């Protein structure tokens, strides 16, 4: 079946540090890949997406590249801010004749210290 | 502004009460979903719908029920709340076509005492 494995948290970084959150996937076919972010007390927001191999999704300084050869979609940011403190979810979706569902990773909690 | 709404945001209720969690979206999306999020953050799909009069059970068994009488409305009902139902409930929607990303509401945090 389809699955997403992401970096165990929690992750704690100092402000302006470089961030990487690893995400790898298993899927039968060619999935679309997503990163969602959940700020405290809120629902999930779509952060970025990539729909085919070698695509790079980017938003708010975050980037992730769809790597088919390593089945990975790692999230990166060059200089994190306190406001980036949140839970980050990697997810995939596959076309399934209208029966598409998202498969989520378990989430990685990120805390940025001033 | 197109959006997805959930009410109430927070609910504390006693055991045995019947509750309905509301979810509405103004984006014209055909597909809607309910997730239960446990304290460890993991998301579990409990119900989904691909249109009016369509409802399906998700990957995690739930004692809740849902209905889809109008495209924009997807309420979730618990006939008799129990402490084990204490959780965060997230509603989402997505268009019929596209790359299958989902758009989430702010969530309802339910506590059953």
Lay out the secondary structure.
The complex is a heterodimer of chains A (114) and B (113).
Chain A: E1 3-6, E2 11-14, E3 19-21, E4 23-26, E5 32-38, E6 44-50, E7 56-59, E8 62-65, E9 75-77, E10 86-93, E11 102-104, E12 108-113
Parallel strand pairs in A: 2-12
Antiparallel strand pairs in A: 1-4, 3-9, 5-6, 5-10, 7-8, 8-9, 10-11, 10-12
Chain B: E1 4-7, E2 10-13, E3 19-25, E4 31-37, E5 43-51, E6 54-57, E7 65-66, E8 76-78, E9 87-94, E10 103-104, E11 108-112
Summary keywords:
heterodimer; A: 114 residues; mainly beta; six-stranded mixed β-sheet; four-stranded antiparallel β-sheet; 12 strands; globular; B: 113 residues; seven-stranded mixed β-sheet
What is the structure about, briefly put?
The complex is a heterodimer of chains A (114) and B (113). Chain A is 0% helix and 50% strand.
Element pattern of chain B in H and E: EEEEEEEEEEE
Summarize model confidence as the mean pLDDT of chain A: 93
Based on helices, strands and strand pairing, what is the structural class of chain B? mainly beta
Helical residue percent of chain B? under 10%
Specify the oligomeric state.
Answer: heterodimer
Shape of chain B: globular
Structural class label of chain A: mainly beta
Report the mean per-residue pLDDT of chain B as an integer.
92
Number of helices of chain A: 0
The fraction of residues assigned to DSSP E strands of chain B is over 45%
Rg of chain B, please?
A: 13 Å
**What characterizes the major β-sheet of chain B?**
7 strands, mixed
Supply Rg of chain A: 14 Å
* Distance from first to last alpha carbon of chain A: 41 Å
Q: Strand portion of chain A, in percent? A: over 45%
Total of helices of chain B: 0
Q: Tell me about the biggest sheet of chain A?
A: 6 strands, mixed
- State the helicity of chain A in percent bands: under 10%
How many strand elements of chain B?
Answer: 11
What is the approximate shape of chain A? globular
